[in-house]
Amino acid sequence: MPSRPIFRCEICGASPDPETYAALRAQMLDLRHGEYVDAEPGRWLTWHGRGLYGPARYACGEHRGELKAELREHYGTIGPHPWAKGPHPWAGRRGSDRARRLQRLL
Ligand SMILES: [Zn+2]
């Protein structure tokens, strides 16, 4: 399954360094809803939206604050999730089997 997803900071268009890329890619299979997750070592921030919170969104270490501000403006009235304060360490995969199945269906 040689798929190579592309991650870009939505503020500046930067690409992650290889290690951060690997972290982002691993986290992609995680099924989360309305959660921020950090990706190290580049301090990238992923917004795992889904449902009302929209698609996943990414920001580099420099622009994570901007991404949060934007998400809070868009989704801040829906629920408390966009207001979560960091850090947001990734605790490993959750529901990854189901996530993989969903990916195959896409
Ligand atoms: Zn950026």
Write a brief caption for the model.
The chain is α+β, with helices and mostly antiparallel strands. The chain has one domain. It has helices at residues 18-28, 64-75, 96-105, and strands at residues 35-39, 44-48, 57-59.
Q: What do these coordinates show?
A:
It is a single chain. This protein has 106 residues and is of the alpha+beta class. Helices cover 31% and strands 12% of the residues. It has a three-stranded antiparallel sheet with strand order 1-2-3. A hairpin with an 8-residue loop joins β2 (44-48) and β3 (57-59). The relative contact order is 0.20. The mean pLDDT is 87. The structure holds zinc ion. Zinc ion binds at residues 9, 11-12, 14, 59-60, 62-63.
Task: Give a topology summary.
Layout: H1 18-28, E1 35-39, E2 44-48, E3 57-59, H2 64-75, H3 96-105
Bound molecules: zinc ion.
H/E series: HEEEHH
Rg of Cα set = 13 Å
Basic shape: globular
List the bound ligands. zinc ion
- Sheet with the most strands, sense and barrel status: 3 strands, antiparallel
Number of structural units classed as domains: 1
How many β strands by DSSP? Answer: 3
Name the beta content range: 5-15%
For the biggest β-sheet, the strand order reads 1-2-3
Structural class: alpha+beta
The residue fraction in helices comes out at: 25-40%
Number of helices: 3
Features:
single chain, 3-stranded antiparallel beta sheet, binds zinc ion, alpha+beta, 106 residues
